[in-house]
Amino acid sequence: MIRDKFLKVASERHFFDNHQKVLIAVSGGLDSMNLLEWMLNFQEQFQIEIGIAHVHHGQRPDSDLEADYLESYARKHQIPFHFSKFTGQFSESYARDFRYRFFKECMKTYGYTALLTAHHADDQAETILMRIIRGSRLRHLSGMAERQSFGSGELIRPLLTFTKSELEPLFHFEDESNASLDYFRNRIRQNYLPQLSEENPRLSQHLNYLAQEVDDLSQSLAYFIKTIHYQNLAVFRVYPEAVQRQFLQDYLQQFPKLNIHKAQFEDLLHIIQTQKNKTLPIKQGYRLILTYEEFYLEKIQPETDEEVKPFVLQSENLVFYGDFQFGFNQRIKNADQKLYLHSENPVYLRTRQPGDQIQINGYHRKVRRWLIDQKIPLFERNKLLLIEQDQKILGIAGIVVSDLSKSPKNDTMKNILYIKKIK
Q1: Per-residue pLDDT tens for 157-192?
Q2: Which of 3, 197, 206, 333 shows a CA-CA span of 20 to 30 A to 381?
Q3: pTM, whole model, 2 decimals?
Q4: Rounded to an integer, what distance in angstroms lies between the CA atom of residue 76 and that of residue 381?
Q5: For residue 122, which of 158, 156, 93, 165 has the smallest C-alpha distance?
């Protein structure tokens, strides 16, 4: 019996061992109604409480009937019912984002630690074929994960090993839009898969096998490279290009919204292979940082007035500015730097300017040239704070102290500036 199989699969895979409250995404279709019935059936065996989450999309005449039926079902079986009505201009992707935002809110508000969706093996096969046609990378052919982190807990797809033909013929609502060939997935489901299955009747099953093999390969690769610090340029460049591609793909997994297409990927790879000490804008508000030693991506933050306006320090000041705490004649415990000042005039904190010079080890050096020689990355150079008094550079916060401020020279010392990095 199919319900016994479901109980066996859920138990063997320990879907609910770490959960007490489970939220089920229910559309009213056959798939989600089977999942809801089976979860209700085994609620006591799993030792969990279940709840229903339903989004009224308002795109079909039956939308009101679906919502009313599910609310009535929940009341009859004493199950919490969480409802939201879609707002905004409808599109498949926007509606999906809306649903999953709502599910996350429900989990956080009502203490659910798992969200269940009714995706099954046929959905998985369709997803894999769609990705193949769209030209997705190999690692993305792993399809939908059976379990993954989501919101304040995890998302579980307990029906991925079940085909739609195995589902029970329970009462459900039909979505008329499933018949429309305007949607890519519907064309896959109604045209492409059936036609290809004439060549191989087990095509859907083999697509699922492919997804599992790709997932196994991806997990194996992740296991072997997890101890390799491949963001280090010297390490990255030691490996063959085929391995470098895997490193970069693995790193980009951290930025799922970036959507780097293949041509951009090749450009990024070439830059990492050949360049250093650069800052390059990418897309979606991100930039690639290449220091002398490593590479990484970061979100571009808007410049603030604090970063560009000089700040005046006066005697007895104890202030926080940028990433530092400054004490003008105010001792700071465990200070990183101590500058001896030989004038009573104000001290300015500012960013670099063309022509800045600093005296270090008996030589006057251009600040720009000295920072390059010290291999300070460009993006850091542009944020550094210089300490200026009497139009002379006395030091760079967190980096270096000028010869002018190293020695107390007791006969002329007027003040002491303490500096401590706080970030």
Answers
A1: 999 999 999 999 999 998 877 778 888 999 999 999
A2: 333
A3: 0.69
A4: 66
A5: 165
